[in-house]
Amino acid sequence: MAGKDEEYDYLFKVVLIGDSGVGKSNLLSRFTRNEFNLESKSTIGVEFATKSIQTENKVIKAQIWDTAGQERYRAITSAYYRGAVGALLVYDISKHITFENVERWLKELRDHAEANIVVMLVGNKCDLRHLRTVSVEEATEFAEKNKLAFIETSALDASGVDTAFQRILTEIYRLMNKKQMSAGGSSPTPALGQGETIALSSGATDKAGSRSKTACSGCRT
Ligand SMILES: Nc1nc2c(ncn2[C@@H]2O[C@H](COP(=O)(O)OP(=O)(O)O)[C@@H](O)[C@H]2O)c(=O)[nH]1
Ligand SMILES: [Mg+2]
């Protein structure tokens, strides 16, 4: 029987990318199952996990893909990126090299993903504040230069995790709405076009401020 979990307005594929060990799998398990694993059992064969959220009166089902450890061999296949409308590009705030490698991951996205994929830079492990090597300022500057949303998270203590997913899904939804409007307003989905006001400004800096806000407050110290 189809339960409430099955009902959604949109299904968005979001991929997790970033160096090995930055916490991608744990961000996924924290968000979808509220679980965290201290051991790095690299890859318990999960291809993707799903979770539905609500935004602007719509139910968005997120299908979040995890690399299954392929990032270690720089062998992520293009199938991984196919159809993805969002990407969380994760680094570890206590390992500067993982932040330096963000450039490479952006190039990977340019080469393999849709041109208009929504990318959010995620500084994970912000609970390790005593070991921090990437400052909020440095990451914010980089994110602004590259027009990325930015947030810090901790999969361990859960701070910022829900916010990160909520924000990227909301931004994807808004951009999709905007695109449908500018394509003539003939939406294929009856749920749309019911007189909602859709912001036509670019950059999605409005309302949720997903591009202008930076770290979650819990992670700034
Ligand atoms: N302190 C801390 N450790 C984390 C956090 N997220 C992940 N880890 C640890 O970092 C290691 C790698 O995590 P994992 O999710 O496997 O990273 P992945 O290779 O990017 O998928 C594991 O030992 C996790 O327990 C976090 O937010 N804080
Ligand atoms: Mg992993």
Automatic annotation (TrEMBL):
Keywords: GTP-binding, Lipoprotein, Membrane, Nucleotide-binding, Prenylation. Residues 200-221 are annotated as: Disordered. It comes from the Eukaryota. It is a lipid-anchor. Residues 211-221 have a biased composition (Polar residues). GO terms for cellular component: endomembrane system. GO terms for molecular function: GTP binding; GTPase activity. InterPro entries: P-loop_NTPase, Rab_GTPases_membrane_traffic, Small_GTP-bd, Small_GTPase. Belongs to the small GTPase superfamily. Rab family. This is Rab11A, rab family GTPase. It comes from Tribonema minus. The lineage of its organism: Eukaryota, Sar, Stramenopiles, Ochrophyta, PX clade.
